[in-house]
Amino acid sequence: MITNPNVKINLGLNVLRKREDGFHDLETLFVPYFGISDTLEIVVGDDYSRTSAALFGRYGEPDGCAGEAPMLAQGISEDGKLMITIARKEGVDWDPLKDLTAKAYRILAEDFELPPVKIFLEKTSPVGAGLGGGSADAAFALKMLDELCGLGLSEEQLASYASRLGSDCAFFVYNRPMIGEGRGEILSEYPVSLEGYDLQILTPEGISVSTKDAYSGIRPHIPEVPLREALARPIEEWDGILVNDFEETVFAKYPELAAIKRSLYDSGAAYASMSGSGSALFALYRM
Q1: What is the pTM of this model?
Q2: Which of 18, 56, 146, 155 would suit a FRET pair with 186, their CA atoms being 20 to 30 Å apart?
Q3: Helix H or strand E encompassing 187
């Protein structure tokens, strides 16, 4: 089975307060974006498909260790039930067995008797860009395993598993515009429409922002204009009231991102913002 996990943008991202468990309460609107995606294949047993074979053709033989950022890295679990191969042009600088797709398999294996599987992931979505590419991979892996293994899980059950993998993973189970609250895992549908606008995303090369760094200087607060009230206004009025709280911290460290945002407005954008904890920026242009 092959799918293409897409990314998302955040329309507004308010960091409201720090919680006793160390996390923060947030409010944001997740919106799926299908113009950037990875390729994820999961096969049961020993079968291989054209996609997995094509990975080897494009990236060469896999390296069993991701320490030197090979273009193709592979890991096999100790029990031999999970093999995961990850390909990325910029290099794979993480352990494939610690990838969220591998964790998705293991979290389901805690409750179900899963067959041996092989996961093939071609990463084309940027890492550390605030677009949720890794979370999308994990959520899609959960949905694929549910279908392949006949688990019969509902969207709500899959979202519950996904929320244990990452704060925005549950959104990708539904993959439609939703308000995220709590850590981002408390979701409610929101009928936003970007019809009549062209959405463009910029992913600056050489800048990868870790979520930990983005939170390092954050100042939780209640916004003057609540998220839903800001979203209800015309898009041309969003600037200044529909805010991503991470911009203050991230722009201070990477002033070039602030300059890019200014250039988006200079080029005629009706609204521009950073997505998630950065570094990607997006702009809405009236068509």
Answers
A1: 0.93
A2: 146
A3: strand 186-189
CA angle at 273 for the pair 131 and 209, rounded to the nearest 5°: 45
The 281-286 sheet, strands edge to edge: 197-202, 281-286, 271-274
Q: How far is CA 70 from CA 98, 154, 227, 253, in A?
A: 16, 37, 42, 29
Q: Are 241 and 230 in contact (CB under 8 A)?
A: yes
Please tell me the distance from the alpha carbon of residue 172 to that of residue 208, in angstroms, as a whole number: 22
Domains of the chain: which residue ranges? Answer: 2-182, 197-286
Q: What are phi and psi of 32, to 5 degrees?
A: -70, 145
Pairwise CA distance, residues 194 & 278, whole Å: 21
Distances (CA, A) of 159 to 35, 99, 131, 145, 174: 23, 18, 18, 14, 8
* CATH level 2 (architecture), domain 2-182: 2-Layer Sandwich (3.30)
For 36-84, write each residue's pLDDT tens digit. 999 999 999 865 565 676 776 778 777 655 456 789 999 999 999 999 9
Q: Dig out the tokens for 186 from the structure.
A: 């408390």
**Hey, which CATH number is domain 197-286, 3.55.50.30, 1.10.10.10, 1.20.1530.20, 3.30.70.890?**
3.30.70.890
Q: What is the CA radius of gyration of the chain?
A: 19
pLDDT of 160 reads 97
How many Å apart are CA 232 and CA 285, to the nearest integer?
18
Among residues 278, 266, 32, 283, the alpha carbon closest in space to that of 136 is found at 32
Quickly tell me which residue has 């600088």 as its tokens. Answer: 93
CA distances to 88, 131, 242 from 255, in Å: 28, 20, 20
Query: How big, in percent rounded to 5, are the helix, strand and coil portions of the chain?
Result: 30, 30, 40
Asked if residues 110 and 164 have their Cβ atoms less than 8 Å apart, the reply is no
